[in-house]
Amino acid sequence: MSQTRIAFIGGGNMARSLVAGLIADGHEPGALIVSDPLAEMRSRLAESYGVQTTDDNATAVAGADVVVLAIKPQVAPAVCRALAAHLPQPAPLVISVMAGVSEAAIAAWLGGEIPLVRSMPNTPMLVQSGAIGLHAGAGASPAQRNLAEEILRAGGLTRWVDSEADLDTVTAVSGSGPAYFFLFMEALEKAAVAEGLDAETARLLAIQTALGAARMAMASDESPGMLRQRVTSPGGTTERALGVLSDGGLEPLVARAVAAARYRAQELSQLLGADA
Known about the structure:
By secondary structure, the protein is of the alpha/beta class. The chain is 53% helix and 13% strand. It has an eight-stranded mixed beta sheet with strand order 3-2-1-4-5-6-7-8. Helix 7 crosses helix 12 and helix 8 packs across helix 9 (199-219). The longest helix has 24 residues, at 250-273. It is elongated. The model has no long low-confidence stretch (mean pLDDT 95).
């Protein structure tokens, strides 16, 4: 895959994180091109990674094997419609990293049936630690699915979902999820300060504890529930603290939060799809 010609439409955080991950995995920088209207963004990408850059989307996609749509959803209709006439034939694989933009809308804007994979990344992809949901449109071949997975894996863990609608749940769990964990770390930090720790010690302990717990969970074959039980001694401090969280309704509250985020993702998808 190192010579696969990949065109990025949009040079923001998600595109930059994929470029960095691909190059770290051995992809040839000269086979990557990023189109962005901002000269400063193009200059930074070229200097940091040695990739080609342009401010013209048509130039970017000429001869591309893969086109990655890494633009804001609000500008997607205009950008995709302008791009439609310039896509190579046969059509390249198109990968969307846009939240809330349906496969049907993207295909309509690009002029019809195209091999398309829609993904839902999250912000930890910026440090190659993302959790990325993938769904392939009917026009994507098995080889193109594998190619999309290879590309997105440069940003972190990838998982395929059975239906496009499942991406709304992915959005609610991992797309929005980093903010949930940041909120818990923030609350833990504040509680530590209230109990007498200095702010910097509280911050570092909260963050490192979250990191350590995540690494343990990822390295273990046991469920988070089983790991929780293993670190909870009967009658101990952890059991007392977990009892307070349980009595406060933590589990149903999380379920309500995820359901609310999923519902909002559906609303946004319908709004954006109305312009198709």
